[in-house]
Amino acid sequence: MNRVTVLVADLVAVFAFATFARMAHRGDGMALSLAGVLSTYWPFALGVAVAFIVIVAAKWDGGRVRPAGVTAWVVTVVIGLSIWGLRNAAVPHWSFILVASIMSALLMLGWRAVAGAVAKRK
């Protein structure tokens, strides 16, 4: 799969994650606005960028669930939550770690699974 497509798909998946997070927590001091979504988005987008460098350096097909997708997901979550922790001077609550991990896995691994299934049909 084209590297640019992989990077854009992961960035879109993480943007969707940030948007859903803002929608779910609207009213808890989290505004549903572009600025609010971007505030949630950028730490995880940075994680995507670092993961992309790893995938390219390893010469993996970024569109495959394993090892590229799993690596992208883990790196993205670890970096995103680490930056969140630094910004908030606190360890993220276990429920936030769980939800962020599950939602990002569904989105980042999900598009790869769908793309792989479509490619097999051709």
TrEMBL record:
InterPro entries: DUF3054. It holds the Pfam family DUF3054. The chain crosses the membrane at residues 39-58, 70-87, 93-114. Keywords: Membrane, Transmembrane, Transmembrane helix. This is Membrane protein. It comes from Corynebacterium guangdongense.
